[in-house]
Amino acid sequence: MKKVIFTMAFLTIFISCQNDDDYQEIDQSLLDDTLSELILDASGEEGNSFFVLPDSDDFASIPQDPLNPITSAKVALGQLLLHDTAMGGDPKIEGREFQFACATCHPVAAGFNAGRRQGIGEGGIGFGLSGEGRFIDPLMPIDSVDVQPVRVPTLLNLAYQDVALWDGRFGGTGTNEGTEAGWELIPENFEGFQGIEVQAMQGQDEHRLFIDEAFVDTYNYRDLFDAAFPNIPEADRYSRRTAGLAIAAFNRTLLSNRAPWQEYLKGDLTAMTKQQKRGAVVFFDQGKCVQCHTGPALKDKAFHAFGFGDFDGSSDAVIRPDVDINAVARGRGNFTGNAADDYKFKTPTLYNLIDGGFFGHGSTFTSIRDVVAYKNEGVPQNTDVPSGQFADQFGGLGLTETQINDLTAFLSDALRDRDLTRYVPEVSNSGFCFPANDPQARIDLGCD
Predict the structure, then answer these.
(1) Residue 175: closest CA among 61, 50, 300, 297
(2) pLDDT score recorded for residue 6
(3) Residues 6+ apart with CB under 8 A from 237
(4) What is the per-residue DSSP string for 177-206?
(5) Which residues form the Cytochrome c domain (predicted)?
(6) Domains plus CATH for the chain?
(7) Which of 2, 22, 95, 321 has its CA 20 to 30 A from that of 225?
(8) For all residues of the chain together, what is the average pLDDT?
């Protein structure tokens, strides 16, 4: 520990006295030694392995729900179902069947985020390149549009959480023990499923997706379901439930394990630039990031208040009339009913942030650097948050402009897995265009 204190003192003085050009002269081995010490300290002496993500086919090393063991057959089925717009079979408005899927709001091009401030399922038209070109159809009644009052979270690294959604309401074990009073409309919680599994089942209802035996036969899925669920009676095998379990199994394998930071942890000291390494030092030390963003997915299982703003019905955000945005703003507290949880939201993973383009549960930032500066300054966007609710890591960090730039480089580039297309099928089982299949999206995606 004495070594890292000495090294950090040296780096802090160097940071405060030099411009970026001179700063590049910091000895590479000094940075690597400093990072090694910081990693060791943050991991409870475990070292690099504490932060390493497993290979996506190393199922034994991926956290999973005991009620839904990961198998290659489930993963293969879940990959297809998540992307297949044939799943969009239960729209509110006639004539919009088979135009949307899970991947409509979780496209790979946006790092499995929405690619826009709000994801739009049914009621959206177009897609653009990464979802940024999807807009609400003016002919669609606003109260019927499938648009959410919070930012769509990424599907990456979901395996490292036992609850799902920003307020964590999905999941019947671990983190949610003692919250049973809020499970009235979540029967899967009572069955003991973890959040990813519950979300994959409940999400079909929320997002107007539909699967039954007719779907299975129409789109040639029977063999895939049979391989994935051989021990489930045929009468129950082709259903919302099994589809959800397959999607959840696939989602658990969506790991950003080829990011430069991951390669660095596995021994390639050239995988990150000097600036990214300096940013990693800030991440582990003065920036206090690792206190919440820890473990392989760089996220804990807790909820924190950082005062991010919410969707407010502005020109680029739509709040359906049936949504109480004030309740949404309460975050975890809205679910638990505990005032101590008010305005707290689940810690997100930090991988592939830059691909999504929007940050915070209300998508109130479009720049990673601005988020870093915001947390450094500690002036909340949401002035309703009581001062006693804020996370200890909010404000008072004292980062210099150079440190902010370096930390931004680490978050933007060192944590970006550039090869996520490995998780996407070449074609859908139905043959429909994906990740969206409305007429304009088909043009945007080159399907027509």
Answers:
(1) 300
(2) 43
(3) 225, 226, 229
(4) TT-GGG-TT-HHHHTT--HHHHHHHHHHHH
(5) 274-415
(6) 2-51+259-414 (1.10.760.10), 59-255+435-444 (1.10.760.10)
(7) 95
(8) 94
Q: The tokens of 304 are what?
A: 């924190």
With tokens 């809205």, the residue in question is: 334
Contact yes or no for 73/404 (Cβ under 8 A)? no
Q: Summarize pLDDT for 188-221 with one digit per residue, the tens.
A: 999 999 999 999 999 999 999 999 999 999 999 9
Which of 7-21, 196-210, 341-355, 388-402 shows the lowest per-residue confidence on average (mean pLDDT)? Answer: 7-21
- DSSP for residue 116: S
Answer positive or negative: Cα dihedral of 49, 51, 55, 57: positive
Q: How many residues does the chain have?
A: 448
Could you tell me the pTM of the whole model?
0.94
Element (H, E) at 41: helix 28-42
pLDDT at 13: 42
| Secondary structure (DSSP) of 259-318 | SHHHHHHTT-TTSS-HHHHHHHHHHHTTT-GGGTS-TTTT--S-EEB-------S-TT--
pLDDT of residue 2: 44
Rg (CA), the chain: 22
Q: Can you tell me the distance from the alpha carbon of 372 to that of 311, in angstroms, rounded to the nearest whole number?
A: 20
